[in-house]
Amino acid sequence: MAFLLLLHEKMRLRRQVNKLTLKDAQYGNRIDRMTKNIKRVQKMYSSRMTQLEKQAQMAQSQFSVWLNNSAGLGTQNLNPYNFGAAGGISNFVMQGLAAWAQQGTKDKDGNEIVSKDKAAEMFQAFQNGGFQQNVDSENKVIKDAEWKDINGNTYSAQQYQAFQAAYGQVQQMQNLSQARVQQIGAQYQNNVSIWLEAAKAELEAEQDAALIPLEAEQTDMELEKESVETQLTYARERLQAIEQACSEGIKDAAPKFGLG
Known about the structure:
three-stranded antiparallel β-sheet, 4 helices, 5 strands
């Protein structure tokens, strides 16, 4: 009778071991799938975080271009490979000198120092090669025609100084405009940085909201798997013990024919 009970227990433990083994494998597969889901979510939010950073960088770059162009400091009409007298002169300066060329220069009493026609001529000369001192055969500067251009047009010292004054004034205006652009640009970059940090914080909160239930479910599965593994270990130990007991019972029940 005892032997039959041992056989019954042995069969029951085998069924339990098989059942727990299957359950352990199922939990393992579910945990693997959950781990992959978590990694997919993390990868998605990492990609969105990178997109935010690129978006902020693009906005800063586009604003910088727009701001410079709006202030006349952009690259329109500027050829950095033009090595003439006006080569490398910014569009801002060229526009300023063009405006001066349309009005010339007058003194404080309203008398013309550089007429409109002469101003336009000097602006054209500036673009074509600039000015050089006008000297005679004895290398002496010619009075009242101290400067000349490549076309032979001459200009008095007063006219040349008026042009240089206009040029300096336009350059000063450019420097002030550049300083203002830099100030506005720095403020915009700061605003974009603040926006980016806030957007990142929102995205991180959204990621946490998406990951927390997945990670909690993964933790529950891992705990369940650990419990199953503990039960499986115990069942296997019990089965081994029962199988040992059954083996000994079979030996005891076997006829000895008077040899024992």
